[in-house]
Amino acid sequence: MIRAYKFLMRPTVGQAAALAAMLADHCSLYNGALQERRDAYRHTSKTSIGYGRQSAQLKEIRAFDPERQGRWSFSSQQATLRRLDKAFQAFFRRVKAGETPGYPRFRGVNWFDTVDFPKDGDGCRWDSTPNDPVTRVRLQGVGHVKVNRHRPVVGKVRTVSAKREGKRWYVVLTAEQPQPEPLAPTGSVVGIDMGIASFLTTSNGEHVDNPRHARKAAAELEAAQRALSRYPRRKAKDRTGNHQRAVERVAALHGKVRRQRLDHAHKTAHALVAEHDFIAHEDLRIRNMIKTVTPKPDPGKPGAFLPNGSAAKTGLNRSIADAGWGVFLTILHAKAESAGRDVIAVDPRNTSRTCPECGHVSAENRPTQEKFHCISCGHTAHADVVGATNVLRAGLVRRDANPA
Questions:
Q1: Which of 342, 347, 362, 374 is deepest in the core (most CB within 10 A)?
Q2: CA dist list (Å): 128 to 148, 150, 157, 192, 357
Q3: H or E element that contains 278
């Protein structure tokens, strides 16, 4: 199996400048390759240029501009061109599927934050010995950069990536390692119901509080955004010192919220995987859930719109995004796979409206957000616990219908 590791790098001032230059030059290569594809299609009888042709031009590009392109790893530049090629492949796939195409766009230097090295030893070298307290990664054109390796890397390192997040630099490794031993069975099964009031509720009646990290940081974010709004939009090289610090302050706050959300997701998923052999959850379509409300024109007043509850829907969308359900479910599936646990997603329709005692389905069974009261048999319980119980039952039915 392939596992990813992410470690904080501690570059010197010179190495940080070299890392920033590496990102800028790879961004320039990406944008130049994108421009070539656009020009070829628009002005040369709709000619399509692929990765193979652009990769063959790298030698000429490196010879023509040795100061900016010639000093970096050839393989990392090929990876940047593959990145653009994948963007076009995804674009054409969406066109054929009838989805919103999303044509590949030019990247600003602040939006291009990763350089990939496809093979350890080709333009990069992960240098880690078990008993050496200092770990370094060598990057061509940058040097040997110290790394805060907070845990051992198991297996053979395959790829290395340098990533910038705000003012911090990280190295991301992928390592090939044998399938880990599954955890000892516990004999426990559980269903979970995702929510806003509680982050999740289990079929056992346990509630995990919603930390609401973004809401707690809202006041600081609002103040930082207000300070940033005083400055006109400018490119990074044209910003004043105060303007740049305002930008970094906003980015730092968003980064903190993101790390807090990831930490909560990892800990919650770890607890579920450690305690249960089988986990069932709702197959949520989060992207559809957070769509904005379509405005409805008022036929009696040209230019006006009818009330459609958009303010309340916006608040709900913000709460769903703050909960981070998608990130949590992705982490849950990854941890369960490593631990040998089973995770199944089930259809979420009517899970909180179906009585677990008699099976009666009605919207009136849930008179409030928290209360469930069956109008047929009189069963009363917490609505989220009822939803989690029905999710578990549906998951067990799917598991038994499709045995491994």
A1: 374
A2: 11, 12, 11, 41, 58
A3: strand 278-282
Distance of alpha carbon 210 from alpha carbon 200, whole angstroms: 8
| Residue 178 DSSP symbol | P
200, with CB counted inside 10 A (0-12, 13-18, 19+), is: buried
Tokens 């570059």 locate to 11
Rounded distance between C-alpha atoms, residue 295 and residue 345, angstroms: 33
Structure tokens at 318: 């913000």
Q: Are strands 278-282 and 342-346 parallel, antiparallel or unpaired?
A: parallel
* Beta-carbon count within 10 A of 104 CB: 19
123 close to 76: Cβ distance less than 8 angstroms: yes
| pLDDT average, residue stretch 28-44 | 90
Q: Sign of the C-alpha dihedral, residues 216, 219, 222, 225?
A: negative
- Best CA proximity match to 118, nearest among 178, 170, 77: 77
How many degrees, rounded to 5, is the angle at CA 324 between CA 320 and CA 329?
120
| Residue 295 CA neighbour count, 13 Å, CB half | 7
Which residue intervals of 74-193 are DSSP H helices?
Answer: 74-97
Strands (DSSP E) contained in 37-180 are 114-117, 124-127, 135-139, 143-148, 156-165, 168-176
Query: pLDDT tens for residues 224-255?
Result: 999 999 998 887 778 898 998 999 999 999 99
Reported as a single tens digit per residue, the pLDDT across 103-128 is 999 998 888 999 999 999 999 999 87
